[in-house]
Input
Amino acid sequence: MNLDEYTEFDAVALSDLVRKQDVSSAELIACAEDAIARINPAINAVIRPVHQDRDAPIQDGPFTGVPFLLKDLGHNFAGIACTMGSRIGRGFVPKEDGPLAARFRAGGLRPVGVTNSSEFGINGVTEPVAFGPTRNPWDPTLSPGGSSGGSAAAVAAGIVPMAHASDGGGSIRVPAAWCGLVGLKPSRGRNPLGSGTSNDATSWVSAQHVVSRSLRDTAAALDVTSGPLPGDYIAMPRHERSFLEELKRAPERLRIALMLSWPDGPNVDEDCRLAAFDAGRLAESLGHIVEEIGPRVSYDDMSDLCRDIFLPSLAEGVERTSAATGLPMGPDTLECQTLAAIKRLQSLSAMDLKRDLSKLAAMSRQVGAFMADYDVLLTPAVSRSPVEIGRFNPESYPPDSITFWSDEMSCYAFSALSSLTGQPSMTLPLSETAEGLPVGVQINGHIGDDATLFQLAAQFEAAAPWDHRRPALHAAAKSNGTGLNPFTEKDSARCLRQSESLTR
Output
């Protein structure tokens, strides 16, 4: 199998080929490694290779023998370094699989590399001091978003069909939107968390899943990963049917709320607003009822609450990583905005956190009351088109400043709400700009009702397919030669040296 053939298949299809013995897993691993060598110097998405024994036994599952990439943030795969996108993570290697890692392995996935992440997932772009910026394969002068920017850029560029990602305020959905992918943040408690340098406390706002090119891969991955563990802090019962089956079920006539802007929020780029508007018209053509309306939630309250709920888990993750590596917290090991966020947390009391949790519960109920009249909330996936590399570089912020949060959230104004409420939220690459850049839309459902999102998304995918689109920088030979300036050899070598030094 050559790279042109490899990149035409999604993960489910590649697994079918392995089971039929039309191709071996070793051949797929070779293709992924070839793709990394060919395209990664231009985008800096994979910061650390994971060398597989191509002839090793593979587990039989929905993704038997399929190459996979792990985000450098809480992936919890035993024996694979995970530096949390940070210099303080140098030398950290999980000793045992976390629950999600174990399920990915059981599904047959084979890790071939680790992808770039912003430091501890704190930024909405992927430009960590430790590894340098990841570039968007649609235009390498632009960011792929964050914090799962490395995973999204790698999947969009054809290195693998699907990659691990995580989301605490939009970190799956924003990169998916800017890179032209499917990105699902499952319902709170749908996928287990907890182990290593992450723990169940992050499940207030965080979720782990994947980014992929196909809706089918995203559904099959949720079939593999979902379901509670005994004693889970927040547990969502396993869905009665497989999510792959849900893709084949037509939804009832849905009531869809279409929200195009926040009355008190940042401006929304016209391309982003128009993509959501067009998706609403598409939904109407499919027989659904669409009303332009949104929940009456204060944008500033939502933004501040998401930040202050996220901070405790960030600080604990830093402390756990420092304890695991023996490296002290300070300006030589952490970026200035991470230190500023920890300093802010230290100024808050236990009563402040209790008030924030009460606000979270109240906001969830407020949005729940609004959603009682609707099945789906449809919004732009992001409020801005991809920003230039360096626009939100972590070194650009002054010490002790946490303005990065509000500055960056102006790009993804619609994603934090479902992080706070626990609703399932999915980005779909339904549109594109006049320049050919992807533009995503976001659909949110009732908490626990991930199935309706899959059913509606399947209708959208059939009516407005996106699989034919390919970025300018792509592993397939026929996608190259557009004349865009890739990463220089000097930049590529520097990132490789940094990656190697952090894994010693």
Summary: The CA atoms of residues 58 and 65 lie 6 Å apart. The chain has one domain: 3-502. The longest strand covers residues 425-432.
